[in-house]
Amino acid sequence: PLSEAELALFDPYSKEESTGPSPTHTGELAAIEVESKRLDQEPWEPGGQEEEEAEDGEPAPAYLGQATELITQALRNEKAGAYAAALQGYQDGVHILLQGVSGDPSPARREGVKKKAAEYLKRAEMLHTHLP
Asked: In terms of Cα–Cα distance, which of 48, 49, 51, 39 is closest to 89?
């Protein structure tokens, strides 16, 4: 899982909240559900960048498959209302992406992975902020 310091890399205003959920948190979680429907419409398929790389015969890096499984499960958990499990899935998936991307030989894939990692890290931060 990502530490508070790692989360702060993408959001310098991130902080750990120790208070319980307020009525506004409940409303914001409902807004997150609406946002997750948008993400469900454009699921992360790491194949976009790999298709370009497949021409030179290089297989897709293993970290992409691992992260895809975790993030896909996180999306399912979030859709089912299991926000704590979704948060953990996003954190674990982003952690794998950030570890793997540094050694990825494809510049195009690195850029795509960084964008998706930032997207899912933002979702994890939203869940983290609004969970008790």
From this structure: 39
Assigned token pair, 51: 């298709």
Encode the chain (132 residues) as per-residue pLDDT tens digits. 555 655 555 554 545 444 444 444 445 555 555 555 455 444 445 444 433 344 345 678 999 999 999 999 999 999 999 999 999 999 999 999 999 999 999 999 999 999 999 999 999 999 998 887
Q: Which amino acid is at 19?
A: T
Residue/partner pairs of 124-129 with CB below 8 Å, 24 or more apart: 124/2, 124/7, 124/87, 124/90, 124/91, 124/94, 125/7, 125/10, 125/11, 125/14, 126/28, 126/32, 127/32, 127/78, 127/83, 127/86, 127/87, 127/90, 128/7, 128/14, 128/16, 128/87, 129/14, 129/17
Two tokens, residue 117: 């990692």
pTM here?
A: 0.60
Domains of the chain, each with CATH number or no CATH: 22-130 (1.20.58.80)
